[in-house]
Amino acid sequence: MSWRAFFFYREGVLNANQLTAPASDEFDLVRGWQSLHDEHGVALHICVAAALRRGVTDEREAQQLALPGHNLQPGFTLSGLGALAEAALTCDRMVQF
């Protein structure tokens, strides 16, 4: 089985917040996702509406909304539901949790 894409929504968008700082004895989940993207080319889509509600944004959205900064971890992409629909149409299975 190979993973091609993940779509994060609701609280899951917090997996893309580069300002997290886990304790030294904890797994760094944000950087773990980034490593998965970097090493295997897995697309990491973040629901743009859920992300903005929770304070996660990229540089372009931050400028457009006149926000003081951005915090989207490299490797993640702000995406709409179209990205989820496309992934659903091209995959052989879908897992939701």
UniProtKB/TrEMBL annotation:
Keywords: Cytoplasm, Transferase, tRNA processing. It holds the Pfam family DsrE. One of its GO terms (cellular component) is sulfurtransferase complex. SUPFAM superfamilies: DsrEFH-like. One of its GO terms (molecular function) is sulfur carrier activity. It is found in: Cytoplasm. The keyword Transmembrane helix does not apply. GO terms for biological process: tRNA wobble position uridine thiolation. PANTHER family: PROTEIN YCHN, SULFURTRANSFERASE TUSD. This is tRNA 5-methylaminomethyl-2-thiouridine synthase TusD. It comes from Klebsiella pneumoniae IS43. The lineage of its organism: Bacteria, Pseudomonadati, Pseudomonadota, Gammaproteobacteria, Enterobacterales.
